[in-house]
Amino acid sequence: GRIWVVGSTVPDNLCAIEEVDPISLRTRSFSLPACGTYLAVGGGRIFLADGVFTATTDSDAFHVESFDTTTHRAVVMAPVDITTTGTGYAHMAMAYGGGSLWLTPWSDEALEVSPLTGAVVATFTGVPISGGGHPVVAAGQSGLWLAAGVGGPEVIDRLAPGSLTPVKVFTGAEPGAVWLLALVGDRVWAEVANSRDEGRTFVTRLVAFNGSGQKELEVPFGQLGQSGAVTASGDELWSLTAGADCSGPQRLWKIDGRTGKSTVTLTFRSPVVPCPPEFDGSEFAAVGSNVFVLDPSDSPGPS
Predict the structure, then answer these.
(1) Rounded to whole angstroms, how far apart are CA atoms 267 and 253?
(2) pLDDT value, residue 130
(3) How far apart are CA 114 and CA 99, in angstroms?
(4) How far is CA 98 from the centre of its chain?
(5) Structure confidence at residue 277 (pLDDT)
(6) Could you tell me the sign of the dihedral formed by the alpha carbons of 143, 123, 171, 87, in that order?
(7) Residue 297 pLDDT more than 50?
(8) What pTM, to 2 d.p., does this model score?
(9) Residue 76's pLDDT band (cuts 50, 70, 90)
(10) What sign does the CA torsion over 222, 224, 228, 233 have?
């Protein structure tokens, strides 16, 4: 029932999390011991993956930070879950589901992490993460769903609850990629993209799976471009896109989670940086019947 925004305070550049009331838009800010690049929500807490950089080894050691939305207390837990080198910190994903946290480094692994201690409790291999640039994951009672993200391949794996081995539930055409995964009710939705004109434009479609990994619905979603942003509320999905060639303007789409029918509900001004590869939907939220967008534009226009 709240919106949460993570960032740095001005002018002291300290990390903080801000609580926004979706009705009054009143805010309260709480300091954080560290800022995290990746976020997940579950069990009344907000989890962040905090990377500590070591210049001598050009590496980042990631710890889990937990923020309690009731007590407003934050703690960075001691265990190191992932250590990345070079630009590896930019090629990860994080999700909460089934009572666990899930972290995926830029490799063929998925890590199950305790939300209470921040320690890795299980490691699973053979997942389709390393092929893409920005992996996408979703987790829930139906298990962990994984795809390589931008760059492909067009493959979705599912790690069923209690299983030790991920299983492919979808393989599409090439060149293609799975840009996002989202849980809506008892379905998992994927936005699948195929490139044209040597990668200058994209055609995307929505594919829905039941909890067992069986495809139930596949619908064209138009030439939307690299949306990378999706949120869900009730039986509806919402997507924010910037066109087939990522040149804008941004459009807000409402998608019926039962039929896949999509309609444009609002057109924004063009973003400052159309379709940045890190645009993972964290600037976008649905609370009840309202949708909130943190507009990155620097020019006047409708909001």
Answers:
(1) 9
(2) 54
(3) 8
(4) 17
(5) 44
(6) positive
(7) yes
(8) 0.84
(9) very high
(10) negative
